[in-house]
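re: that chain from earlier
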Amino acid sequence: MTKEIKLKFDHVLRYKVIEILAFWEQRLTTNHLCELFGIGRQQASKDINFYINELAPGNLVYDKYLKGYRPSTRFKPQFTRGTTSEYLQLLNGSNKVYDTFLETSLIDQCSQTNYIETIAPSDKNISPAILTGLIKAIKNRRQVTLTYVSLNNPRPQKRTLEPHTLVHAGPRWHVRAYCTKNQDFRDFVLTRFRHNNDDEPINATNPAVSEPQQDHYWQHKVRIKIIPDTRLEPAQRKVIAQDYGMVRNALVIETRAALASYVLQHYKLDPNKIEAKPEAQQLMIGNLKEVEKWLF
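^ sequence. v structure.
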C-alpha cells in the first residue's frame, strides 16, 4: 500500500472483494459490495473511492461502457495475492463473506485462531487463464474453445463449450457447460483443462447457441431423503439423526438433478454399495427409486 493507514477489519474485507471482483470479472460496481455485505450504495461508493484514491492509486479505472470499474494496465493487488483460490473461495462463500478468507493471513493478523483447523480443497492446478476465459464466456454468453482431458480420453482434445455455471462439488470445482461435440450439457472439471501459457488470454468467441434453461438436469429439482441405516438399533439411529439435524429421522435435501450424485458423494452414499457393518454405513437413501434415474 502507498500509505500506512490503520484499517478496520470490515473495511479490509471489502477492499479484498474489490480487488478480487475487479481482477477476475473485469468489472466492479457498487451493487457488488451492497449485495455481498448488506451495505448502502453511499457506503459502497465511499469504499471504492477510498480504495482508488488512498490505498491503490491507479489500480482501477471507470469504464462508462461497462458502467463500472475495471483493472488498469498497472493493476497490482494490495490486499490479495491474485490467485484462483481467492476468487473461487469468494464464489463458494458469497453468502457468508466473513468466512471466505479464513485460510488467508488476514484473520491471523486480527485475532488468535490457533483453535481452528480446516481442510481446504486444493485448487492450485486451476489455470488462471482458463478460469478468466470461462468467467468471460459465462457472463457474456459466448462460446469458448479449450483443451480438455478426461479419464475416458486422457489425450488432450479440443472442446468448444458454452458454460453457464461454476460449481463447487466436494473437493473439486467444475463448470456446467453445453458441449458442441456431444450436443448436450455436461460437467467439466476445472483442473482437467490444459493451457500452455497463463499469460496468454483465452478469448470467448462466438455467441452461445444454447440457453441454461435448456439444461434439463440443471433446471429440474429433486428431493433426496437421507435416513439412518435401518439396520442400526433405535438408540443408534437417534444418535445419527442428531448428528445430521434430521427431522423425524430424515434429512431432506432439495438440489438440482445435475448435482444429485455430488450430494450423495458428500454424504459418502453409494447407491450401488452397502457396507457390511451398519456402523460403517450409518446413512441410507430413503427414496432411492425417485433419485436413481438422475444419477450418473
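Residues 95-113 have pLDDT under 50 and may be disordered.
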